[in-house]
Amino acid sequence: MPFAAQAATLEDIKPHVAGKIVVDTTVPLVPPKVMRVQLPAQGSAAATAAAILGEGVRLVSGFHNVAAHKLAQDIDVSCDILIFGDEKAARAEVVALADAIGLRGIHAGALVNSAAAEAMTSLLIFINKNYQVDGAGIRITADLKPLD
Question: Per the omega criterion (within 30 degrees of 0), is the bond before 2 cis?
Fold first, then answer.
């Protein structure tokens, strides 16, 4: 979802998502300078979502660093999916969702940490353009042990 549409979209769904997991994938890109990190005043798009949706929603943030057009294809996407959220159980459900669609979901901590992944998207766009690649993503270089 474009950052410019985030607030209106969240306001539209707010009456319908109480008690449910909402996965916010918004990256605060502000055209035309999408290759520059431009985090919003709240600190991240995830913080903006949390302020709009309020405490009754199980908010999780993720899928920022994987190209949407790659997810729409039936191809191997060798990209890790960083998942953020203050509620560990909700985060675990979204990590499992990423795993179920053939990606590697990774618990990346509290919702506030989402700012790092959101900012990384501008860097990836810069890398894609300068190295003439299509959809560079993030890969954690470790054999991660399952969480208990």
Answer: no
We report the CATH number of the domain holding residue 116 as 3.40.50.720
145 within some domain: no
Q: Please, are residues 113 and 139 in contact by the beta-carbon 8 Å criterion?
A: no
Q: Dump pLDDT digits (tens) for 113-127.
A: 999 999 999 999 999
Structure tokens at 1: 């979802």
Query: Is the residue at 27 inside a domain?
Result: yes
Quick check: 93 and 58 in contact, CB under 8 A?
no
Residue ranges in the chain whose pLDDT is less than 70? 148
User: How many domains are contained in the chain?
Assistant: 1
Closest CA to 27 of 132, 125, 146: 125
Residue 65 structure tokens: 């660093």
Domain interval for residue 13:
3-130
Q: Which pTM does this prediction carry?
A: 0.93
For 117, the token pair is 């992944």
Beta strands in 25-88, from DSSP E residues, in sequence order: 58-62, 80-85
| 86 within domain boundaries | yes
The answer to whether residues 107 and 92 touch, using CB atoms and an 8 Å cutoff, is yes
